[in-house]
Amino acid sequence: MNGAIWRSLLWKEWREHRWKLAALVVVVLGLHAWVLDATRPGPAHYANAFWATLFIVVPIGSAFVAIGLAAGEQSQRTASFMRSSPVDLRGLAIVKLLVGVATIAAIIMLAAVLTRALVAAADAYSWQSDASSLESLDSLRHLYETGGWFLTALLIGVSVSISLILWMAAPAVNSKSEVRAGAIGLIVVVACWTLLAWGVYFVNRDAAPSSDQRVVIAHLAAMMPGGIWVALISLDGLAGQSYLLFPYLATHVPLACWYITHFGHTGDRERSRLSDADPLVAAAPVWLGPARRSPLTALLWKHTRECAPIVLAGAIGALGLAVTTICVQYSQSSTIDLMDITSESVLVAFITLGCCAGLVCGAGVLTSELEPRLLTFWRTRPIPIDLWFAIAFLGGLALLVGVFGVPVAVAYQFTMPEDRQNEPSLVLILAILVLSYASGAFTASFVRNPVYASILGFCVMMIAFATAATEWIDIPIAWLGVAALALSAVLGVAAWVCVRNDWSLRLS
Prior knowledge:
transmembrane, transmembrane helix, membrane
């Protein structure tokens, strides 16, 4: 390809990633503003925002980038155009990977610059000394032996980002929708770590791993999605362990090759499948099942079928994550209370993945219903648009709360020690699940893009959490749950207004 084609591809990818970058920038700025507000009265730990960027924003941003890389061309119906254009699909795949990784690298550099500027301002105005602010970040230096925390953090973040992007994008390449790609990627990531954790548990059930076993475990972790970070920490850095990069490359290079060589090649398989089909079978009439008597039950059944795979995939992942966490913690110390770690593991796993499933259901499924042609179809049916939206919104919400809320309530009631049980806390936990779904539905109704809607929905939740954590809000936990439910209702009404009036901001 000549230079003009490369520039065109870069320009195309920049236009597709710019709004992802803008949304992630909002998240990073919000994290730093939150830390500045929370630490102003007392001793400040301004590096906390940078750690939050590494541990939260980088994995979530990488997941959203991977979803776009796997299903962007198919969902936007540009795959056939790209195949018919004089562009090498392998070159386009390489450009997409490079721009996606560069987006996450830009977020890491922005967070580092903001952290360093915040520390410099704190030192200049005697808010807090520079040394104490960067003390936690200085511990990063020895991991890659770079001599500075900024370069080390950039290398770690980019390594983790590349790993997550490849592990999520390669298995789901050429998916028809972002929702399907996200579900496949999540299942692959959770399955890899679950298998590794179970293997480590069964090998070291009776004793702590030896030094040689720790090296083997670290090498296996480096092969997993985002595992290079775990491997470096477990071996206390890369010094003397430079061959740790070989297992990292052993899995990620084949994944990159798989993505590059298979990107955009769905048309050949579809044509081959159609040409090989039996003409008599292909020409046979397809009889649909009997129509449902009530439009209400028909719409509810349709939306449940669309949301159920996402919710069930998240529930299976949460169950696997909870069981894995319980086994790992119990193998490290058999004297700990099994019921205690069971309650904590189940709560953390189901709340975390429940919020992710809520965002995906609210943003992804509703976005597919709001495509211009499909929305026009719904408006021409003898079904009020208000009834259609109410069923779509409440049906997905009921499924989410039923699948994730019931295990959380059971674990909280029967495994949590009585001295730590607090019914208002349970109300707040369930309200967070509702808020995640409502945030995704609101942003989907306004943006009409599942990836952007998921990121902006995460921003809405982060703003709500940051507001609740500020010092000038001091209310009981029960009222926080009520406030979260009230905010969810407001977001649901706002989404309904956007759908009813067809208000949208299409980011392209």
